[in-house]
Specification:
Layout: H1 10-19, H2 42-49, E1 55-62, E2 66-73, E3 76-83, H3 94-98, H4 106-114, H5 117-140, H6 154-157, E4 163-167, H7 186-205, E5 208-209, E6 218-221, E7 224-227, E8 234-235, H8 241-256, H9 265-277
Antiparallel strand pairs: 1-2, 2-3, 3-4, 5-8, 6-7
Helix pairs in contact: 4-5, 7-9, 8-9
Bound molecules: adenosine-5'-triphosphate (ATP) and magnesium ion.
Length: 288
Amino acid sequence: MSRDRSDDSPGEQRLRRKKTKPAGRRRLETLVGANPEDISDPVVRHLSEQGYVDEVLAELKSGKEATAYIANGPSGLMLLKVYRDLEARSFKNDGLYREGEVIMDDRARRSMKNRSAKGLSLLQFDWVMREYAGLWKLWNAGLNVPEPLVGPDPTIYAETVPAVLMRLIGTEDEPAPRLSEARLSPEEAQSAWDQALAGMADMLRLGYVHGDYSTYNLLWWENTVIIIDFPQLTTRQNPNFSDLLRRDAESLSTSFRKQGIQVPGEDTLREVQRRALGPAPTPRVTLP
Ligand SMILES: Nc1ncnc2c1ncn2[C@@H]1O[C@H](COP(=O)(O)OP(=O)(O)OP(=O)(O)O)[C@@H](O)[C@H]1O
Ligand SMILES: [Mg+2]
């Protein structure tokens, strides 16, 4: 018979949860601490001291540019995306997404171009600010994106650099899979494809191209496609806009082949453009 554990202290409950963590998701002892001063990671310590993060529960994924953690904060479970140290960042093709933008400050422009220490730090800052700005823009427009948890005032979300705080899609024990790894029935795959097209068309209608649109940046939860990863979100003032749109259509098509959807990139592009001319944005699904 199992005993009633509802009276256990939060610490005991936490310890128990630790033991039942699914394999492959590392518990981050160094990041978790009852007192902010015990947390060794400077970014998490700073966020904890500022009151944005109460506890980091698990590392979800460590990628090229950022590490994603599951964390608890004042507004519940969140996804904490911490951009990597400046030295480890490639800022690959950064200029492509930045073209057409005006940087007023001459010195800032030069340092970013030369990748000096100051320039890298500015790029880092800008990358995070872009991700927040994109999230807010699309969230406010009603698209299926994770709810940003800091802002909408940029001076407020600047406080969390080099991290972006957003609502976790899924649960602590079962975060939403990416469409690249989700196991879908043919009907589900068709629905996911349709939603992915709708999402791309919604962005285009608002004047944006995602810049890295594929099943690797689409989550699947409760039969709903949720778009993530926005630092490359690009506006029409960028001379590369059409090329990026075409490239996104291609990568969406290519990445969906694994799900059994065979649509040439050219057709995807045409369909997205056709849908973008329609008036109504897809209303956001309220996730539980
Ligand atoms: N809001 C979220 N809810 C649940 N999982 C998320 C959320 N945002 C991101 N993730 C997970 O974290 C991973 C990394 O996020 P993201 O794609 O934004 O970063 P990235 O810089 O592209 O990292 P990578 O190089 O690993 O793709 C995603 O692939 C996804 O599995
Ligand atoms: Mg990504």
